[in-house]
Amino acid sequence: MIVDALSNSGAVEKLHPLFKKAFDFLKSTDFSKAKPGKIAPDGDNLFVSVVETQGKTKEEAKLETHNRYIDIQMPVIGTETMGWLAGKDCKNPAEPYNAEKDITFFTDEPSTYIHVKPFEFAIFFPEDGHAPAIADGMIKKVIIKVKV
Asked: What's 22's DSSP letter?
């Protein structure tokens, strides 16, 4: 997991061949005006989801992992709390891996929580269990999926 300010993205853009493209897209798009939905600047290799959702409590938010994609998550409106647990410690799947959606949910509890504000981001690799969308009220966020 990596957490940083969008203005510092250059430090992580070298970690994956598509990260620079992903961060350039984040920096050049006004997501506050974007409607919820999916944008695919690079097909299945890199796609963006704009999401508006009701915030969850820590108890409601489920840990999840992905096998084929890295998540870059950035709140647009509202501060979002995200839980984290090392993937190797996610031992109790709530249901089997869903290959179509590339997701496994777990009933385990996060070991730590981070608070991510607008123009900050969190990157979750396949080895990171994460419980997103913990917030009071509605949040708007961007999730970029980068193929591993």
From this structure: H
* Residue 64 C-beta-side C-alpha neighbours within 13 Å: 17
Q: What is the pLDDT of residue 41?
A: 86
Find all residues with CB under 8 Å of 140, minimum gap 6, and list them: 31, 32, 50, 51, 52, 75, 76, 77, 78
Q: Torsion over CA of 50, 147, 121 and 61, rounded to 10 degrees? A: 70
Tell me what pLDDT residue 107 has: 98
In sequence order, the β-bridge partners of residue 114 are 82
Which residues lie closer than 8 Å to 15 by C-beta, 6 or more apart?
none
Beta strand 128-134 pairing with 37-42: unpaired
Q: Given pLDDT bands bounded at 50, 70 and 90, which one contains residue 23? A: very high
Asked whether residue 2 carries a pLDDT value surpassing 90, the answer given is yes
In what order do the strands lie in the sheet containing 2-5? 2-5, 120-124, 69-77, 138-147, 46-54, 37-42
Q: For the chain, what percent of residues have pLDDT higher than 90?
A: 97
For the chain, give the longest Cα–Cα distance. Answer: 39
- pTM beyond 0.90: yes
> Cα dihedral sign for 83, 68, 2, 78?
negative
